[in-house]
Amino acid sequence: MDLHDQATEAEELHRERALAQLLAKFGQARPADWETKSAKWCTDAQCGERIPDERRRAIPGVKFCMECQERRERQERRQRWI
Ligand SMILES: [Zn+2]
Known about the structure:
Elements: H1 3-26, H2 33-37, H3 53-58, H4 66-81
Bound molecules: zinc ion.
Zinc ion binds next to helix 4.
């Protein structure tokens, strides 16, 4: 291996490392918006069910599972009628 080859290898290694660092910073490692906003578990004190990712993705900032959301909406409606 001559000097030129060694230089190229060092350069490639450096580029690979820099790329890996960038990926770790901005790439796949970065969670999506809905992942940080949406609750992973239903925040209802009585429930605590896992909220499916499809629901979390569909409604960024979601806090309750579908059952609790519906129950709460029903209760709110009932309270308005009284
Ligand atoms: Zn729930």
